[in-house]
Amino acid sequence: MRRFEADKIIMNMSDSGLKGVMFLLTGTGVSALFSASYHFGRIAANNPFYFLNKQLLWIFLGSFFGFVLSRLPIAFIRKWTVPFVIVTVFLNLLTYIPSVGSHSGGAARWIEIAGQSFQPSELVRVALVLYMAHILDKKKDDMEDLFNSVLPVLIVAIVMTTIVYFQNDFSSAIYIFALSLIMLFVAGLKGSYLLGGFLGVVACAVPMIMVKPYRIERIHSWLHPFSDPSGAGYQLLKAKMALQNGKLWGLGIGRGQIKLGGLPAAHSDFVFAVVGEETGFMGIVFILVLYLVFALKGYSIAMKGECKYIRLAAFGLTSAVYFQVLINMAVVSGALPATGIPLPLFSAGGTSTFVTLGIFGLLLNFSRFAKTEKEMACYD
Question: Which of 26, 142, 252, 375 is the most buried (most CB within 10 A)?
Answer without folding.
Answer: 26
